[in-house]
Amino acid sequence: MTQECYQAASAAFDQANAEDPNKEMADGKEYPKELLYAQRMSEMQQRYAPEASEAVKLAVRAQHIQRWKIPRSDYPVDRQGYLQWRTGLYQFHAETAGNIMQEAGCDNAMIERVKSIVSKKGLKVNPETQLMEDVADLVFIEHYLVGFALQHPEYDEAKWIQIIRKTWQKMSPRAHEFALACKIKLPEALVPLILKAVQ
Hints:
- The protein is mainly α.
- Helices cover about 65% and strands about 5% of the residues.
- Strand 1 (about 25) and strand 2 form a beta hairpin.
- The chain starts with a helix and ends with a helix.
């Protein structure tokens, strides 16, 4: 895969995510929500696995590509609806990333590899998919866990321990080590809960 393809695809992913009508503040600056998420994913990947392949780097950048186009509200509010939404998202992100890469002149083998990672195929068995999952979980813990907690004041401690454990189970031993070695900023208020959940 040429460097041109990698750079063109990365820039096109960012351009697509910059269209997000939802905004989020970070360090006193407003960002399109999914563009900020993509930047956080790449930043975490650099910290966690700087040796990652270009396929992983592209997948990391495209993991939530144009997520706002498939709103959760389009699906039933029950557990079944949530699972359908997640499956629909994986497919949508993979197809969107693939189409953008095709326009950027990437070869088919690389496109298929990135699509496979983005759609989370072979989690736990495909090291590239697992690497992206690790990065996503580390980003969730560092940047989004507190916000998620604020949205759910009704959750008790047992429910939180369950949520943290679910995230933890998706991660590799290497990611566990990385998180517990304070290589990520753990949300201070939730540290006792996180430690309790992963003991």
